[in-house]
Amino acid sequence: MNADVDRRRFLAFLGAAVAAAMTACRGDVLPGEAAASTRVRAAPGRAHADPVVADAPPVPAASVVGAGSGPSRHGAIAPPVPGRPVVVQEGPRGTRLVALTIDDGTSAECVDRYVAFAQRSGIPITFSPNGINPGWDMVAGRLQPLVGTG
User: What percentage of the chain carries pLDDT values higher than 70?
Assistant: First the structure.
């Protein structure tokens, strides 16, 4: 046998081994456990997507801090749904609601402009300051009234 044939066999074996290892690492079901999961269809127009597998046990709503509590002009917050999240491609038809999520910014000027935009537009924005970057310090007083309105 020549070196080319041995190399091809080795590469074929290596490819099969990597594929088997990656399949085993999916994490859907641990070895020795039965697959007791809920399957959810992919969003319309996404026929090629794998279904979402939800194998986490349900979490009682009472054990989640703040679940279903707190004032909101859009109604009560629904309790969490067990399992993996489902990607939403579009909102309900006939509604004109928008909400934005802004991660912790490092630029004080940028953070200031996001807060000014939220004040001007009235669009609900979820800010996620982590308390490390000082850009949030200068807008803390302006954020408090926005937090109070939900």
Answer: 55
